[in-house]
Design goal:
It is globular, with a radius of gyration of 19 Å. Helix 2 runs antiparallel to helix 3, helix 4 packs antiparallel against helix 5 and helix 7 packs antiparallel against helix 8. The protein is mainly α.
């Protein structure tokens, strides 16, 4: 609850700067978030670490603070939030909803000239959006990725093509089967097979 309150207050101060002349209130709240994150690291509370990195990432991204100030910037906090969530996924088996963070990171990298890295992060966002059943946004993010230079790493053409096939199946709402995709994580593909069947069931009920 306290994180939600901090988020709302910081959002109010951002959009109503007269309430925070000199940004002293915002700085005090952000300092408290960093103190909480340091305590979470010390106690090994990785869930709290993730949530605090994620909140700080949004705070800095909304303010256009991308690389300034060492770790007090959007890129650092986004990358560490996503990395922490991936560690939690490996250790707990849970799937974290990262699409919004991934989109912020991809678009931020692109707007600051890191185009190769941005394409891989954009494809990460496509996967995250599909996992959240946000298929239209996944298609839009895939189109965004296609505007970026093609590399051979995480943003390679085989991965993009595989995601394009998944987006097409999810968009169809039909009983088309999701094929095995060796260029994508097996667990992700398995989730998409289940979700594609759910999509077709929902479409049938709507008839």
């Amino acid at each position: 609850v306290r994180l939600d309150l901090c988020r709302e207050l910081l959002n109010v101060y951002l959009h109503h700067p007269t309430l925070d002349a000199g940004e002293a209130k915002s700085r005090r709240l952000v300092d408290q978030l960093f103190q909480g994150k340091a305590a979470a690291y010390q106690t090994g509370d990785r869930e709290a670490v993730f949530r605090l990195h994620a909140l700080l990432a949004v705070v800095y991204d909304d303010r256009g603070q991308w690389t300034e100030g060492g770790y007090r910037n959007a890129r650092f906090q986004l990358e560490h939030a996503i990395r922490t969530a991936r560690e939690l996924e490996r250790t707990t088996g849970a799937v974290y909803p990262l699409a919004d963070l991934q989109m912020r990171l991809a678009k931020g990298l692109a707007s600051h000239g890191s185009l190769d890295a941005a394409r891989g992060r954009a494809l990460d966002a496509v996967q995250g959006l599909l996992d959240e059943d946000r298929v239209t946004e996944a298609e839009e993010m895939l189109s965004f990725a296609d505007t970026l230079p093609v590399g051979e790493g995480p943003g390679g053409p085989k991965r993009a093509a595989a995601l394009g096939r998944l987006v097409a199946v999810r968009n169809s709402g039909s009983c088309a089967e999701v094929a095995d995709e060796p260029d994508l994580p097996a667990r992700f593909v398995a989730r998409q097979k289940f979700r594609a069947y759910a999509d077709s069931d929902d479409a049938a009920r709507a008839l």
